[in-house]
Amino acid sequence: GGDVTWSTTGGEVRVAGPRTILYTAPAAPGTYTITATSTQDGSVRATAQVVTAAESGPPLTSSWDGATGG
């Protein structure tokens, strides 16, 4: 399986489909980390950094393929 749990150091991550997440950044500009952690082995993780500016735009959409890791 490619099941993961999602977490972030700021903002919100929500699952929008089988291989799609939606990340909404907080209002404050900064650098935030999104982490995907395997539900089968908590030591297996992948991270991505997102840098936000003062102006906001539409949510960032990203896909995750658990089989290939990215």
Would you kindly provide a written description of the structure presented here, covering whatever features stand out?
The structure is a single chain. A hairpin with a 6-residue loop joins strand 4 and strand 5. It is built from no helices and six strands. The radius of gyration is 12 Å and the shape is globular. 0% of the residues lie in helices and 53% in strands. It has strands at 4-8, 12-17, 20-24, 30-38, 45-52, 60-63. With 70 residues, it is mainly β. The strands form two sheets. It has a three-stranded antiparallel sheet, with no helix packed on it. Strands 2-3-6 form a three-stranded antiparallel sheet, with no helix packed on it.
Question: How is the secondary structure organized here?
Answer:
Layout: E1 4-8, E2 12-17, E3 20-24, E4 30-38, E5 45-52, E6 60-63
Antiparallel strand pairs: 1-4, 2-3, 3-6, 4-5
In short:
The protein contains no helices and 6 strands. The chain is an all-beta fold and 70 residues long.
Structural class: mainly beta
Percent of residues in helical segments?
A: under 10%
Tell me the Rg in angstroms.
12 Å
| Quaternary structure classification | single chain
Mean pLDDT value: 83
Number of helices: 0
What sort of overall outline do the alpha carbons produce when their principal axes are compared?
globular
Largest beta sheet: strand ordering: 1-4-5
List how many beta strands DSSP finds: 6
Largest sheet: 3 strands, antiparallel
Distance between the termini: 14 Å
Order of helices and strands: EEEEEE
Query: Roughly what fraction of the amino acids lie in strands?
Result: over 45%
Low-confidence region ranges: none
